[in-house]
Write a structure and sequence with these properties.
Blueprint: E1 16-18, E2 21-23, E3 30-31, E4 61-63, E5 81-82, E6 86-87, E7 94-98, E8 102-106, E9 111-113
Antiparallel strand pairs: 1-2, 2-3, 4-5, 4-9, 6-7, 7-8
Organism: Aquilutibacter rugosus
InterPro entries: YjdM, YjdM_C, YjdM_N
Protein name: Zinc ribbon domain-containing protein YjdM
Length: 114
Amino acid sequence: MTDMPNCPQCGSNFSYSDGTIFVCPKCGHEWVEGEAVAVPEDGPRIHKDAVGNVLQDGDSITVIKDLKVKGASSPVKAGTKVRNIRLVDEDHDIDCKIDGFGAMKLKSEFVRKA
């Protein structure tokens, strides 16, 4: 058995070959042998909305897609406006309060800057 390289993104040793590329089942990263590895910057992360606008703390956003909410009887509807967002460096990029739902965590790919 050949020795597979560790994932350059998460360092996992569970990578496997899929034709001409390597795949990491842990983080989903795909790469080609010898590909340059991007080194993350130590600076602050830049959050962008679905169309590429840069988001900042305190911005107002609009939800662009109906979002199902666990435990709620109805989804957050597309077009819902959210004011005074807070950006975080977690799985979900945005902490906010939505009227009728309360505190929520949203991903920036489902919102547009208002």
